Every structure is written in C-alpha cells, then in structure tokens.
Amino acid sequence: MLDTAEGVLIGLRGCDTDSAFHELVRAAQIHVVPIFTIASALVELASGAGEFGDLPGRARSAARDEWGRLLDASPRRARNSP
C-alpha cells in the first residue's frame, strides 16, 4: 500500500519516490497517524471507490486535508466528474 500511495503522489505532483515517501512521513507525523494507515487512506481517497477496510476516520480526514484539493484538481478526476 505504501508503494501505491507513493505512486499516487508521484502521479499528482510529478515528484520522485523519495519526495513522495517523505511527504507521507510528514503527513503521518503531523496528523499522528501510522504511515501505512495514511497511505491506505490516500489510496482509498484517490481511487474514489469508497472503503477498503477499517481505516480510522482520523486517517481519512488527514488524507482529505492533505491531498483532497490536489486530487480534486487532477485532470483525471476532472474528466470523470458529472
């Protein structure tokens, strides 16, 4: 899941793997959420597919706070909007 979350950030930001990983670490520390949990929340948010499991609400909120606007502004998300 961590690799997938890094891939989401690489795709959205055009950054490298190290930058994506450090962004996940920073977000996990700021929001006091384990890194694998926030990575799962980011993947869930990016997929738009709903729940993947029992993610804490705090992790979902953290992912929305950190990356919601970025995902909403992505060209792919804009094409799929009603």
Question: What attributes characterize this protein structure?
Answer:
82 residues; mainly alpha; globular; disordered C terminus
Write the SSE topology:
Layout: H1 2-13, H2 17-31, H3 35-47, H4 57-72, H5 75-79
Helix pairs in contact: 1-2, 1-3, 2-3, 3-4
Helix content: over 70%
The tally of beta strands, per DSSP, is 0
Sheet/helix structural class: mainly alpha
Number of domains: 1
Strand content bin:
under 5%
Roughly what is the average pLDDT, rounded to an integer?
Answer: 88
Number of discrete helical segments: 5
Q: Which value, in Å, is the CA radius of gyration? A: 12 Å
Low-confidence stretches: 78-82
Order of helices and strands: HHHHH
What is the CA–CA distance across the termini?
29 Å
Summarize the main sheet: none
Oligomer kind? single chain
**Shape call:** globular
Q: What report would you give on this structure?
A:
This protein has 82 residues and is mainly alpha-helical. The protein has one domain. Helix 3 packs across helix 4. The longest helix has 16 residues.
In short:
The protein has helices at 2-13, 17-31, 35-47, 57-72, 75-79. With 82 residues, it is mainly alpha-helical.
